């Protein structure tokens, strides 16, 4: 039995294979319509979600399977004090695979130790979000035609942004990658990511607070939301939430083939005027999440 807790649980060869399968699903969805017939996916979302939860559900339905689960902790026995371990042990008797989101870092790992079926980490606090990273990699591969030799700008909340942490881990294994880290000092990249990955692996990176000064160097611009739910102090959130707002004016200096990604939801860090720019990829990115999750579900269920 195989789980996906961290993007590093997958080799680059496995990631490339998942991308190939997702691309084939996009080209020929009918070929996959009954691949998971008779299988059940449980979505255990202890934290609010729109795209991740619904894309998992859409993925399973399009594979011909069924879905059960809950969309918030208050609608589960967690509201009565039941532990994650007990919830998962019970639900794993009802389903063939589980996608789980939890506000506490490490909760999916605990779940994987008790589950009778594969666990997919659908986001744990500010730690990891491996299926969003697979979505990001599919998007980059389709938009740029490669996962190598890219300068990637990561902008906004790099401290709590689990999507940023997972993407750095994944892309650090591909050749010719350079990162440009753009954030206010209070939201800069955690030292364990900087030291254990970028420094340890000798991956070139620069840190700056000025998006406009570096935007012309970027092949990918990955915008992130400053996450109110991660702050203990509302005053700090209010002070930092509008640190970076991407506008058409700021894009004037960017490359014509820049790809703008965002894991969504967007608040106001990307102006709606940017949506019509052909470089805006974030709505395509959200759609690609369904296809890569279809490929992942089949892989973990060992379905060809």
The averaged pLDDT comes out at 90
User: Could you list the spans in which at least 5 consecutive residues all have pLDDT below 50?
Assistant: 228-232
Across the major sheet, the strand order is 7-6-5-8-9
Structural class assignment: alpha/beta
Could you tell me the strand content as a percent range? 15-25%
Count of helical regions: 11
Distance between the termini: 15 Å
Computed Rg: 19 Å
How would you characterize the largest beta sheet? Answer: 5 strands, parallel
Order of helices and strands: HEHEHEHEHEHEHEHEHHEH
Q: Give the CA-based shape.
A: globular
Helix content: 25-40%
The counted number of beta strands is 9
How are the secondary structure elements laid out?
Elements: H1 12-27, E1 40-45, H2 51-62, E2 66-70, H3 84-91, E3 97-102, H4 107-114, E4 119-124, H5 130-144, E5 150-155, H6 162-171, E6 177-182, H7 191-199, E7 205-208, H8 211-214, E8 220-223, H9 234-240, H10 248-251, E9 259-261, H11 282-300
Parallel strand pairs: 1-2, 1-3, 3-4, 5-6, 5-8, 6-7, 8-9
Write up this protein.
The protein starts with 11 loop residues before the first helix and ends with a helix. Mean pLDDT is 90; it is low at 228-232. It is globular, with a radius of gyration of 19 Å. It has a five-stranded parallel β-sheet with strand order 7-6-5-8-9, covered by helices on one side. The chain has a four-stranded parallel β-sheet with strand order 2-1-3-4, with helices on both faces. It is an alpha/beta fold and 304 residues long. It is built from eleven helices and nine strands.
């Amino acid at each position: 039995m195989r789980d996906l807790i961290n993007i590093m649980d997958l080799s680059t060869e496995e990631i490339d294979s998942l991308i190939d399968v997702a691309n084939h699903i996009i080209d020929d969805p009918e070929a996959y319509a009954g691949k998971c017939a008779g299988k059940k996916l449980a979505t255990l979302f202890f934290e609010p979600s729109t795209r991740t939860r619904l894309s998992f559900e859409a993925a399973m339905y399009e594979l011909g399977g069924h879905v059960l689960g809950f969309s918030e902790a208050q609608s589960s026995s967690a509201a009565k004090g039941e532990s994650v371990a007990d919830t998962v042990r019970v639900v794993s008797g009802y389903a063939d695979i589980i996608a789980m989101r939890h506000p506490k870092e490490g909760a999916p790992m605990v779940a994987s130790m008790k589950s009778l079926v594969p666990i997919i980490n659908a986001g744990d606090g500010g730690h990891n979000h491996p299926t969003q990273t697979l979505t990001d990699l599919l998007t980059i591969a389709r938009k740029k035609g490669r996962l190598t030799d890219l300068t990637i700008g990561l902008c906004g909340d790099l401290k709590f942004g689990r999507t940023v942490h997972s993407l750095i881990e994944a892309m650090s294994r591909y050749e010719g990658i350079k990162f440009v880290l753009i954030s206010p000092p209070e939201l800069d990249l955690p030292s364990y990511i900087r030291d254990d990955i970028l420094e340890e692996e000798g991956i070139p990176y620069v840190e700056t607070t000025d998006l406009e000064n570096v935007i012309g160097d970027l092949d990918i611009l990955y915008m992130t939301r400053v996450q109110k739910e991660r702050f203990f102090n509302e005053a700090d959130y209010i002070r930092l939430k509008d640190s970076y707002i991407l506008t058409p004016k700021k894009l004037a200096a960017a490359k014509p083939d820049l790809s703008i990604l965002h894991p969504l939801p967007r608040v106001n860090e990307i102006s709606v005027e940017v949506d019509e720019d052909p470089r805006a990829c974030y709505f395509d990115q959200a759609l690609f999440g369904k296809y890569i999750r279809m490929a992942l579900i089949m892989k973990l269920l060992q379905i060809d």
